[in-house]
Amino acid sequence: MTEELRAYGTGIVTEPPRRTVIVSSMASDSHTWNLVYLQLLVGELGFDVVNLGACVPDELLESECLSRRPAMLVLSSVNGHGHQDGLRVIQRIRALPELRALPVVIGGKLGVGGALTAEETAQLLLAGFDAVFDDQQGAGSFRRFAATLSAGVTQVEA
C-alpha cells in the first residue's frame, strides 16, 4: 500500500496506510450477519477489512493470512461450535512459522451449551488465541483489544 499525502496549509502531512484485518467464520458456520457487524466495527476502528464470509475452509484462512499478512485475524462463531472449530484452526495457524506472531482472536457463541467455562476459555488461549470474546461480553472488550494494535487510531471509545 502506498502512503496517502494530503495538503495541510503550506506543508504536507503523511498518513500511514491503513492496516488490514481479516474477519471470517470457520468451516462449519454458515452465519453471515455477525460477519457484517464485525466488518463494520473493525472498519470503524481504523482498519481495512477483508471479510472472507461463511463456511471458510481452514486452507483458505491459512492462504489469505499468508498472502495478506493482516494486522489481526478475527474469527466469529454463531452456531456454537466455535470452541471446537477454533481449536483446530488455531493449531493450523500457529503451526506456520510466518503466522506465529499474528494476533488471532475468536468470539461469539463458542459453545453449544451456552457460555464457555473458564477451563474451555483457557484451552483456547493456551492453544494460541490472543483473546477470547464470549457473546455475552459486548463489543467493548474487543474494541479495547483492537486499540492495542498499531493501526493509526489515536483514540478508541470503550
Automatic annotation (TrEMBL):
Taxonomic lineage of the native organism: Bacteria, Bacillati, Actinomycetota, Actinomycetes, Pseudonocardiales
Gene Ontology molecular functions: cobalamin binding; metal ion binding
Domain called B12-binding: residue spans: 18-156
Protein name from the UniProt record: Methylaspartate mutase sigma subunit
Superkingdom field: Bacteria
UniProt cross-references to SUPFAM superfamilies, sorted A to Z: Cobalamin (vitamin B12)-binding domain
